[in-house]
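S.,

As promised, the AR6 run. Input:
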Amino acid sequence: MQKEISGIIIECVKGNIAAQPDITAIVNAANAWLRPGGGVAGAIHQAAGPGLAKECEPLAPIEPGQAVITGGHNLPNKYVIHTLGPVYGVDKPEDELLASCYRNALKLAEENKIDSIAFPAISTGVFRYPLEKATAVALKTVLSLLPTLKHVKKIRFVLFSESDLLVYEAELERLTAGQ
Ligand code: AR6
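Predicted complex:
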């Protein structure tokens, strides 16, 4: 699914965040220590190679909602933006912390004149944030920031399953109805 809003292309696709070669910056659903983990972080670090963990070391630890930027190493992307999502039920208020992840990632993208960025569904795996709730926060936050973006021209949401993709598509339709 693809939409153009405020001159920016918004896409929802099913796929692997570490396999988005046409995107300048991919976002990592990181752990506080920015180490290779499972899920998104595991896939990104595996594809990037050990140089990424090395570059991350002095930037850690990060707090929930914070974001930091590194190079892409062996990834096809120029940058990786690492953000720490809230653990659902633990880091509160979780909706505000999750919104900060998307806001701070986009802020770094703008500061680095990045034209395209891909997000996974932050916090919805190991951190157990219910997908429907997380989707509403992610899309509302990103849509509200579109008019402020000068460099970012494409935002892609990469979902790992068909059912997650359907949730994103339905929410994007709902939030943009009439636009
Ligand atoms: N590409 C796109 N989406 C993926 C991929 C992938 N390769 N792999 C998983 N997902 P998670 P979190 C989906 O657990 O909840 C890590 O171990 C997945 O189905 O990666 O923020 C870190 O080290 C889910 O919907 O991130 C942290 O400790 C979503 O991406 C912790 O997990 C996020 O799942 C972070 O947990």
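The chain is about 35% helix and 20% strand. Residues 16-18, 29, 31, 37-41, 43, 85, 120-127, 158, 160, 164 surround AR6 (CB under 6 Å).

- D.
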